[in-house]
Amino acid sequence: MIELSVRRLLIDLETPFARHWCGGDAFLSALFDALSMSFPIGEQFFIDAVKGGFKVLQPEQQEKFRAEVQGFVGQEATHRRIHGLFNAHLERQGMVNKWEARAAARLALLADADPRHLLAITAAYEHFTAILAEWILGTPQLFAGSEPRLATMWQWHSAEESEHRSTAFDVYQALGGSRAWRIAWFRRVTLIFISDLLRQTVDNLRREGELWRWRTWASAARWMFGRQGLARAVLKPWLAYLRRDFHPRRQASGRARRWLEDNAAAYSVIGSG
After folding, report:
1. What pLDDT is recorded for position 251?
2. CA angle, 251 then 220 then 37, to 5°
3. Helix intervals (H) in 56-147
4. How many CA atoms lie within 13 A of 221 on its CB side?
């Protein structure tokens, strides 16, 4: 098991920020804003799924996972709060969070689902957030010219997502979750996540009149399909999830640990699992 520290991010999220806070780039700002819109409801679902899975573990397994699950819950609850503050600024800027409403409707259908299904869904989403985290931490140019406090927020979040990337997966495995369920939910989550991300990003751009500008599409082409683009970063780890011997820990690069070590002044540790 791994030790997960719960950290308080030491940045100002009360002061408003510019609409194109990400280096003046409308596309990147809209993309990250869309991701942030998914986090409060998503992080709460992940917390509930892991806690629900933990409750049905055998007592000896609970003792094994107790500290890690507590750390996972603490980290995700902090992410939910931070992005709630960030999203409040987006709402005041006229952005509308449609992703959350779609997610809420889908989650209502899972109210009585087997805890292993909820964990399989969580493990799939956690793999995507870990992929995104590796991309963010490995591509500092994403935040060139950005508000430093917001760049720190995204990098801190990414480091912790990478850090707890295996918790839901390991609890799922401990409950005897099958590879077939894991893969089936991963494929569904892939379609849902990509669709939701694109729809919300497009809606963000449309609302501010940036959707049909040449510079928006040029940035999208660069950061989605260029040499440092997200599509290239996603392919290999996406395929890795389908392998029989897959484990999230094998995907970690060390970038999260290095960022946390190099940026200790950006946060304070308030607890650990």
Report:
1. 84
2. 70
3. 59-92, 98-108, 115-138
4. 6
Name the token pair of 209: 């009149």
CA dihedral 168, 139, 32, 233 (to 10 degrees): -60
Q: Which region, left, alpha or beta, applies to residue 252 given φ > 0 means left and ψ of -120 to 50 means alpha?
A: beta
Rounded average pLDDT per 10-residue block, the chain, 273 residues? 90 94 97 98 97 95 94 96 97 97 94 94 97 95 95 97 96 96 97 97 97 97 94 92 93 91 95 67
The two tokens of residue 163 are 């850090």
CATH class of 5-272: mainly alpha
- The rounded Cα 1 to chain-centroid distance in angstroms is 21
- The three state secondary structure string of 125-185 is HHHHHHHHHHHHHHCHHHHCCCCHHHHHHHHHHHHHHHHCCCHHHHHHHHCCCCHHHHHHH
Written as six digits, the tokens of 103 are 């997610």
